[in-house]
Design a protein that fits this description.
Shape: elongated
Distance between the termini: 98 Å
Helix content: 40-55%
Radius of gyration: 34 Å
Number of helices: 23
Strand content: 5-15%
Number of domains: 4
């Protein structure tokens, strides 16, 4: 029977649960055309203007509001897709599920239009019942999460540089020194990573434009995060149909304390950029499903490919994309399978040029320890794992706060699964899939690693909040309580973490510029620091920060080593502690200055030099750098002059080293002309006795040889003589050239 009242034919606006905005056409065909144009919806529900039914009551009519199997009108018009992307229309009870089109009475044109537009209608996004809201409310919803981030992490916006920042800032200096663009962009650095976009290009270009002004770097980080928040809200609307869920997902992601690290420390900007690319990929994927427009499909390919230059975690995106298409558009799943072999190929190439470490904090452990690592990250996700930052160390308190949050999310998950709303599985899957490659790193767990996995957590919890608020009173109360727990834990922890990064960076900044001001009086001198603590060593000196102001040689007095925690530093960190012999020689020759870092920066060169030279010590340095004239008196007379990092030897040369050690390590470089007529043999003679020989074969490459010294050496000094089996000439240079050497060292 034809409905007695047709609000559409009467030109009435569509109300609660309808397509956003008013519709003024005169028939059902116009309404449908308008719905087709509004592609941003995941589901279209047309209801009688007189019915203002709350969302939760729609289920009483037999229709699940977010059921992707139907597009419903309260006037009896049901558009039902199947997995072949067909849409069938039936007039009758809304709860009917039969796949056929029956007589529509007074609306035959609507049925004909639907049949003709099957493919187009198939792309109307599911599950998007768009709530009506004012422009002001909509604008506030979009802008408030970024503003909240600005308030919560203001200290991060005003922070200076620290730690790894200095490594990446020095890249431009390496480029100026002769490194190629190819090396800069693609050479594995920092644990073998190749992050071309998020580290190499970002730091090099910003340093070229802004130097050591930290504000542009921090603004870039906050801007990237703000755009990611907008994408997150849009993605949530497309996935769940709820703007409120999108808003809460953005809020929950923002307040999570794990965001304090990337929003305060420039070196981990790659986490924010990776989150942006993941969300952009998903947004493009959903737009393609909605519109069937291949431009979105191609754009997603481009962003997916670019993501490999941001962070290695990009390899897991295909798994997330596959889950989405299986829940939303199975008929196009085959179009996304190709991403898996691309990720696999990337991994093969990456491991080929940068093998996995066999030891150290970045070694991967594929064992049962991955489970406790996962539990730790889950605890950190709630913020409860970092309560010690706010002086709450009770383990029982952490459990009491984290357990209700976990149970609430699990309960919501089971509820949605029971209602066959399978898209809910995407959210825990996102968290686990993105986190999975990090679980074997049990010796290097970092809070910032949660930045991208937390997107899944935030979407999960955001939808749970909206669903809980639309439920019974006790569920509302429980939802409010859980949200209060999460926010009251996350914000103080995040604030404390932000303050740590900000305050530390300010101390590093003050020391850095104080040293720069003092060093203007000794621009070419070696710098030796004393009274160095762990923070100054690990966050400033260890990362070669002072190379940015032209100080090439920086050391720490040997007696400070016992006061510095080096457990997380690389082995070369010990080379930054100057040996007493080198220290004595550098100060004696007026080649070095000493700065005391206790309570500011003071030049104590005169007092320290007088105290040091008063002690009798004729020990030789155990390492001789041939590019440094400081060690010239340990070299024999036949060596050619210093050529900026190395010296040439003729057929024979010698060097004097201390006798305390077991191994002689020789490093140098072999030019192509040296081995043009075959390999060159290097003979080492120790105090007149022959040691091993070494053969140099590879042209235009560095070499390193280790020679075992005879046991029981009692000599205080060792005369090391080197002899080559042949030399060469390089006209117009008249010299007799053998090999170029960079260093000799006696190791214990």
């Amino acid at each position: 029977m034809q409905p007695s009242v047709n609000p559409i034919r009467e030109g009435r606006g569509i109300r609660h649960g309808d397509v956003q905005g008013s519709v003024g056409p005169n028939d059902s065909r116009d309404l449908l055309n308008r719905a087709i144009q509004l592609r941003h919806m995941l589901k279209t529900v047309v209801c009688d203007h007189s019915i203002e039914t709350p969302v939760r009551k729609w289920k009483t009519s037999g229709i699940a509001l977010h059921d992707p199997a139907r597009i419903v009108s309260r006037n009896g018009l049901v558009v039902q897709p199947n997995h072949d992307d067909l849409r069938e229309v039936r007039r009758g009870e809304a709860s009917s599920t039969r796949s056929q089109v029956q007589d529509l009475g007074a609306a035959p044109q609507v049925a004909q239009d639907l049949v003709q537009r099957i493919r187009i209608i198939a792309n109307i996004p599911y599950n998007a019942v768009v709530e009506k809201s004012s422009r002001f409310a909509a604008g506030l919803r979009w802008i408030s999460p970024p503003l909240l981030a600005l308030v919560l992490y203001w200290g991060g916006l005003t922070a200076w540089f620290q730690k790894d920042d200095f490594v990446w800032l020095n890249l431009r200096n390496l480029l100026v020194a002769g490194k190629s663009i190819g090396w800069l962009l693609f050479e594995p650095l920092a644990q073998g990573t190749i992050r071309t976009l998020s580290e190499r290009i970002f730091f090099t270009s910003f340093y070229e434009l802004f130097g050591l002004n930290p504000l542009p770097y921090r603004l870039a980080a906050f801007a990237t995060f703000a755009i990611s928040l907008l994408l997150l809200q849009s993605v949530m609307v497309k996935l769940t149909g709820s703007r409120a869920a999108g808003y809460w997902a953005a809020i929950l992601w923002t307040v999570n304390a794990a965001l304090a690290t990337p929003l305060s420390w420039t070196a981990v900007y790659y986490e924010l950029m990776c989150a942006f690319f993941f969300l952009l990929d998903v947004w493009l994927l959903l737009r393609y499903i909605e519109t069937d427009d291949n431009r979105y499909y191609a754009a997603q390919f481009v962003t997916f490919f670019l993501g490999f230059g941001v962070l290695e975690l990009n390899v897991v995106y295909p798994a997330i994309a596959l889950i989405i298409v299986l829940c939303r558009a199975r008929h196009v799943a085959w179009k996304f399978v190709w991403m898996f072999p691309i990720s696999g190929l990337y991994m093969i190439l990456h491991f080929a040029v940068s093998p996995l470490p066999a030891a150290g904090p970045y070694k991967l452990y594929w064992d049962w320890h991955m489970l406790p690592t996962l539990i730790t990250y889950v605890n950190w996700s709630f913020g409860t794992g970092w309560l010690s930052l706010v002086h709450l160390n009770s383990y029982a308190l952490r459990i009491a706060l984290a357990l209700p949050l976990a149970l609430g999310l699990l309960g919501f998950l089971l509820w949605k699964i029971r209602d066959r709303q399978w898209i809910v599985l995407l959210f825990p899957a996102w968290f686990l899939i993105v986190l999975a490659p990090l679980l074997p790193l049990r010796e290097h767990m970092s809070y910032e690693y949660l930045t991208v996995p937390l997107i899944g957590f935030a979407m999960w919890a955001g939808w749970a909040i909206v669903s809980g608020w639309a439920s019974r009173l006790w569920v509302k109360a429980a939802t409010v309580l859980l949200v209060a727990i999460y926010i009251c834990v996350s914000i103080p922890v995040g604030h404390a973490l932000t303050a740590i990064f900000h305050d530390r960076s300010m101390r590093l900044r003050d020391t850095f510029y104080a040293v720069e001001a003092l060093h203007q009086n000794h621009p070419d001198a070696m710098v030796i620091f004393k009274s160095v603590n762990t923070e100054m060593f690990n966050d400033l000196i260890y990362h070669h920060a002072f190379a940015l102001i032209g100080i090439k040689e920086v050391y720490v007095v040997p007696e400070d080593e016992r006061n510095i925690d080096l457990h997380s530093a690389a082995p070369f960190a010990k080379d930054l502690f100057i040996s007493p012999a080198v220290e004595r020689r550098a100060l004696g020759q007026g080649r070095a200055v000493v700065y005391d870092l206790h309570d500011g920066v003071r030049d104590v060169t005169a007092d320290y030099k007088a105290s040091l030279l008063a002690r009798t010590d004729d020990t030789l340095p155990s390492r001789v750098d041939l590019g440094d004239d400081l060690y010239a008196d340990q070299l024999g007379p036949t060596w050619y002059g210093n050529e900026g990092g190395y010296r040439w030897m003729p057929k024979r040369a010698s060097v004097t080293l201390p006798g305390l050690g077991r191994t002689l390590v020789v490093k140098g470089f072999c030019p192509a002309a040296a081995v043009k007529d075959g390999p060159v043999t290097l003979q080492v003679i120790l105090n007149g006795e022959m040691l091993q020989t070494a053969v140099v074969r590879k042209p235009e490459s560095a070499f390193e040889f280790s020679f075992e010294l005879p046991p029981g050496l009692a000599e205080k000094r060792l005369l090391i003589e080197l002899e080559l089996d042949r030399t060469f000439h390089a006209p117009p240079d008249p010299r007799e050239l053998g090999l170029a050497f960079t260093s000799f060292e006696i190791k214990k």
